[in-house]
Amino acid sequence: MSEIKKIIKGCLTGNRRDQELLYRRHAAKLYAVCLQYSGNDEEARDILQEGFIKIFENLEHYKNEGSFEGWMRRITVNTALEKFRSRHNLYRVDDIDTIQEQDAEPDNQDYAGLEANDLLEIIRELPTKYRMVFNLYAIEGYSHREISKMVNITEGTSKSNLSRARVILQRRVGSYTGIKKKVANE
Amino acid sequence: MNEKEANIDLLFRNGLKDFEVLPPPGVCENILSAVKIKSRPYIFLKIAAAITVLVTLSFLTYRWSREVSFEPSAPVIALNVPVSLPVLYNPIDNPHYLLKGKFNPVNNSSGILTVTDNQASIREEMETTDSPGQILNIQETKGLYLTKNEITNSLILLPLNTFAVNSANVKYPDLQYLPETIITRPEKRWSIAAMASPTYYSTINSGSDQLTSQLMSTEEPLFSYSGGVAFSYKISKRFSIQSGLYYSSLGQKVDGIYSFSGFQKYISSKGGPNFEVPTTSGTVYTSNPDVFLAAYGNGKVLTAYTNDVFDPQKASLQYISNSLTQNLSYLELPVILRYKIIDKTIGINLIGGLSYNLLVNNSAYAMKDGTKYPVGDTKGLNPLALSSSLGMGMEYNLSGKLSLNLEPTFRYYLNPFSVTTGSFIHPYSFGIFSGVSYKF
User: Fold this and answer.
1) From B42, which residue of chain A is nearest by alpha-carbon distance?
2) Which residues are paired to B194 by β-bridges?
3) B7 — contact with chain A (CB < 8 Å)?
4) Same structural domain for residues B361 and B412?
5) If we measure between CA atoms, which residue out of B364, B360, B353, B241 comes closest to residue B301?
6) Of A63, B145, B289, B404, which is most buried by a Cβ count within 10 Å?
7) B30 interfacial to chain A (CB closer than 8 Å)
8) Distance CA B394, CA B407 (A)
9) Who among B20, B22, B37 is closest to A14 (CB)?
10) Last residue of a domain, one of B122, B153, B185
11) Orientation of helix A144-151 relative to helix A155-185, angle to 10°
């Protein structure tokens, strides 16, 4: 029996040591996912907590089919989506045109020097609906049809949100790269 | 999709792949303290069910083997004893009764005494007296044994359980002078019992929809209670039918529902309920306008006052609890059939039947320091539920009229409490009823 299966078995019997071991092994990766889907650290922490509680409570339903890490990630993403759905009235994206961009043009797709921390920072600055659609499409690989059902929007809105998210991201990546180069030259 | 768009997607997908950020401290403890261990109640139930089955089987086997060994194939025993010989009566049982009833000496042409009854009725026909004698040469035959008193040279017929007969307490009545009138004791067919039990309540989901699974994952059954009065009528020696009136209270706790008080002054609209909480037993609607409910992202509270619109902490509402308790009370009318497996000082019964449960009260509340804050009630409940019961009763006879009862009983509700969720959720309960019964 593989180690992860032993840990899962221990968790199912209520073994606290195994539950803690499972958390310690996967929390950092899942917290990064939570940060990616949330606008602030507090919300990310809530998603991580609720997601992990669901993981523990639904461990008996994991059938050893596919990656366990992938299964946990799906639960975490679903938890983020539930949180998003419960608050969707707050998130308005109609005023996106008013967002001011520092650099109008991206830096010719020269993304050198950008680290994961920078990418996370950039993605979290997106308006919530754009961030959701971009994460689900570009990172998780869902189709617009699937996203429309998950986020409760039309396929057209999903495509439009993705398009706008990409424009913003390209501009901000350009800004980041430019600033980084400037700092490096100095 | 143009190349630029694909590049930006790839940049983020690859850049964030396997990215890790250490979560803030304390999260692990919060998670582990909130995780419920679900498997324990099921293990407990499995063990209880296995013990019940084993004990039942053991008693059935024991009873069956006793019947095979001792029950006479025909209730007539013929002894080659002259009618004039004395017969010994049991001094232990019923010392004040002289019952002739079924003990019929027959003076036939061959001068043979014929005894026509089984062990129990012979015991009833014994009386006490003082007379010398000595029991020797015990010979066992079909629930009775034959002894010979060598002093008087007489044969004595005794039931099996009279080994302790003091030979000094015997007399030899002349059967020809036994009274003609038959003294009978009326059989006690009715009994009344008061029973009560703590009850463990839970649900079985035979459907597979995700919504129900999610709802069930946050619900925790509570220990409840049941009690009432039962009347029983003895149909035959082993069967009796029972009915009565029971009151049972069931409950469950819904986790992740945060409640606050002091909301009334912020409400602008009046009329309908402010909050709805879907559960497997139906949807809880708030009726107390002073209560604010929040689920903080798990989507279990449906309301116009989401956390984004109204923040209870900023409004300084008083926190009550992080869970909601649902309570349902039923009046129960059972129709139960009992089969007596063992009929001795400690009797064993098999119990099975159906009960009609009438919903008489339902409430939802939040608890703080032992105080209940009314929240509302559950809508969509079936007003009448039908349940089936199976159990095993143990009865300890304190006297001919009074007995103590202990009845582990499993109850399964044939129709769900609620019709709103669209799934097949069947509640069940397990209780150990105890009480006193009086026969008349």
Assistant:
1) A13
2) B229, B436
3) yes
4) yes
5) B364
6) B145
7) yes
8) 6
9) B37
10) B185
11) 100
Phi, psi of A139 (to 5 degrees): -95, -50
Domain final residue, candidates B148, B163, B185: B185
User: pLDDT tens, B288-322?
Assistant: 888 888 887 666 788 777 766 778 877 888 888 88
Is B5 in the A-facing interface, judged by CB distances under 8 Å?
yes
Specify whether the CB–CB gap between B385 and B413 falls below 8 A.
yes
Q: What average pLDDT does this structure show over B164-189?
A: 51
Is residue B211 predicted with pLDDT exceeding 60? yes
Alpha carbon B143 to its chain's center: 35
A75-79, A83-87, A133-137: segment of lowest average pLDDT: A83-87
Q: Is B19 on the interface with A (CB under 8 A)?
A: yes
**A163 contacts on B by Cβ (under 8 Å):** 5
Is B179 a residue whose pLDDT tops 60? no
A73 phi/psi in degrees, rounded to 5: -65, -40
Residues B136 and B255 reside in one and the same domain: no
Q: Which class does domain A92-186 fall in? A: mainly alpha
Q: Which residue has the higher pLDDT, B349 or B118?
A: B349
Per-residue pLDDT at B42: 56
B28 and A24 within 8 Å at the Cβ level: the answer is yes
Q: Does residue B173 lie in a domain region? A: yes
Residue B36 to chain A, least CA–CA distance (Å): 7
pTM of this prediction? 0.44
Residue B333 and residue B212 share a domain? yes
Residues B234 and B358 in one domain: yes
Closest-CA distance, A125 to chain B, in angstroms, reads 14
**Residue B52 placed within a domain:** no
pLDDT cut 90: percent of chain B above it: 12
Structure confidence at residue B430 (pLDDT): 87
Which residues in chain A are contacts of B297 at CB distance < 8 A? 46-47, 50, 79, 82-83, 86-87
| Weakest mean pLDDT among A92-101, B241-250, B299-308 | A92-101
Task: Say yes or no: B224 and B127 in one domain.
Answer: no
Per the structure, the complete domain to which residue B344 belongs is given by 188-260+280-285+322-439
More confident residue, B249 or B419: B249
pLDDT at A34: 94
**What does residue B345 show for φ and ψ, rounded to 5 degrees?**
-60, -45
In this structure, which topology does domain A1-87 adopt according to CATH?
Rna Polymerase Sigma Factor; Chain: A (1.10.1740)
The answer on pLDDT for A85 being more than 50 is yes
Considering the domain architecture, whether residues B160 and B220 belong to the same structural domain is answered as no
What's the gap in Å between the CA of B371 and the closest CA on chain A?
28
- Kindly tell me the burial class for residue A10, based on how many C-beta atoms sit within 10 Å of its own C-beta (0-12, 13-18, 19 or more): middle
- Pick the more confident residue, A27 or B220: A27
From CA B142, how far away is CA B73, in angstroms rounded? 9
For chain A, which residues make up each domain, given as ranges? 1-87, 92-186
**Mean predicted lDDT score pLDDT of chain A:** 82
Q: Domain check: are B213 and B339 in the same one?
A: yes
Which token pair is A158? 């999903």
Into how many domains does chain B fold?
A: 2
Contact check, Cβ <8 Å, B28/A46: no
The structure tokens listed for B373 are 């804050």
Which of B42-46, B56-60, B282-286 has the weakest average pLDDT? B42-46
Residue B80 has pLDDT above 50, yes or no: no
Q: Rounded distance, CA B153 to CA B81, Å?
A: 12
CATH number of the CATH domain containing B192: 2.40.160.20
